[in-house]
Structures are given as structure tokens and as C-alpha cells.
Task: structure prediction
Amino acid sequence: MASPYKKLIAILMVAALAGLTLSGPAEANRKRAHNTMTGALVGTGVGYLVGGKNGASAGAVVGAIAGYTK
Result:
């Protein structure tokens, strides 16, 4: 029979592994949100330089889509 310490270590290792596994999707969602916001900001700036006020709106949308799909 395994000692209580070995059982405790095994339980803690499984808990740590589960925590790392479950944090993966949250990190991916955070990166996707960051890329979307960055794309929108860059798109707004480029769109404004190219097409003025209307270009800024279109650039924000295109930049957000590009950042989301990155």
C-alpha cells in the first residue's frame, strides 16, 4: 500500500496538471482579445491616414477582424 505522502503528492500533481490544462483556453482567449483590440487601434490609425474619418471607421473594422483571425 502506498504511503499517505505518496498519495498526497500524486493528488497534488494531478491537480496541478488539471490547472495547467484548464488555463490554456483562457490564455488563448486573452491573446485573441488583445490581438483584436490591437488590430482595431492600428486599423483606425492607418485608415485615418489614408481616408480620413470614414477611413478610420473602416480601418477599425478591418483591423479588428484581422486581429481576431490572427
